[in-house]
Amino acid sequence: MEAPITTVHTPLRRVSIADALAAMARHAVRAARTERIKSADAEGRIVACETRAAVDVPAFARSMVDGYAVIAADVTGASANAPVRLAIAGSVLMGKPAHASVHRGQAVAVPTGGAMPEGATGVIKVEDIDVRDGIVTIFDATDCEDRITPAASDVRAHEVLFAAGRRLSPAAIGLLCAAGVAQVDVYRAPVVGVLVTGDELVPAHEPLAVGQIHESNGVAIIAALRALGFAARPYGIIPDERDLLETELRRALNDCDAVLISGGSSVGQRDHVPTVVAEAGEPGVVVHGVRAKPGRPVLLAMIGDQPVIGLPGNPVSALVMLEALARPVLMRMFGIDDKPKAFRAQLEKPLTTDASLEHRIPVQLLFGTSGLIARPLLGSSSQLHILAYADAVIVVPEGSGGLAAGAMVDAFPFSATRTP
Q1: Are residues 305 and 255 in the same domain?
Q2: Best label site of 9, 24, 173, 215, fewest CB within 10 Å?
C-alpha cells in the first residue's frame, strides 16, 4: 500500500505587512455569531445586518420655535411700521395632535417641537409678536417658512440606517430609538484566547526576584481586544516549555474563536511557538516574519478557521503588530475590511530608518499653528512608556530610509479604550 500523500505548507518569511495580510486573506476566518439586543444597550456593539428605520423621523411636521403658526402669505412684509394682525384660532399642546387648523387671517399658538396645525406654512417667533384680546400682532415675518421641521426630514421609514459592520456610537443608538428600532441585531463578541509565554514573567502583584520582570503584554493585549469588541480570555503565564505550550494552545483552540500568543515567536532555542503552532492543525503557519520594525518575528497562522497570531515578546512590538496585523485579521470575524482612518499631521522631527524595513513609529499628536504636529517617540521596542504616551503610529515606508522634518504623514490612532 502506498503511503498517504502529506501536504507540506511552507510559510512565507520576511514579507511585507501588506503581503502578510494578503496571505491571511486567502483563508476564511470563523464568523462571529449574532444576537438581538435592546438598542438602548447596544453602545459599542457592531451591527450584524442592514438595519432600517421603522418610522419617519419626525413623524409629523414640527415647529422649530415657540410662536404662532400662520399662513405665510398672510404675513408677507409685516414690520414694526406695518404690522399684521391675525385672530388666534387655538393652540397646540406639546405631545398632542394639532386639532386646530389655520385659515386665512388666523394664527395658532405652537411650542417648540409641537405639531404644526393643518394649513400652516410658517411660524412667527414670540419675540416678534404682541398678543392681546384674542389678536396676535406680527411685527416681523422674515424667514417664517424656515421655522418648520418637515415630517421625515431626518429619516424616512424603511430607510437604511446602518449597514452591517458599523460600530454603534451613543448618537447611533439614539438614532435607532428615534426611528422606532427598539431592538438591533449585533455580533456577539468572539472569544480570543491570550497566551503569554516567558520564564522571566511574574504578575504585577508579586515581588520581583533578580532576572524577573512584571508581565505587561497580556494585560495590554486583553485591553486592546476588549476595545475592539472581542471577549478576551487569559490563560495565564506559560513557562517556556514546549509541552505546557502545546497543552494550553490546544485548550485555547477548543475554548476560543481565535488565539493570540505573546512571546516565543522568534527562532531562539526556547522559542517554541512556531513549531507548536505548525503542528496544531492545518493549514498551519501562513507567515513567519515580516520586513517591519518593530515586530519582525511575528507569526500568522490558521488552524481550521481559527486565526492564531504569535506576537513578539517586546511590549512595543507586540502592540504595534496587534494593530498592524492581528486587528485586520480578527476584524474579519465581524465581516469588516478594517481600514483605520488616519489623521493628517506634519512630522516635527526628521526620521532616519533602515531602508530594508518598513518602520512604524509611535507619535504624539499636538496642535501647531498650521495644524496637527506628529512628534516621534523613539526608543527600544522594550520600552512600554513609548506607547503609553503615544496617540497614534506613522508608517515610514520600506525603501525610503526615513522622512524629512515637516513631511506630511498619516497618523493612525490606536484602538480606542472603552469599558466593556
Answers
A1: yes
A2: 9
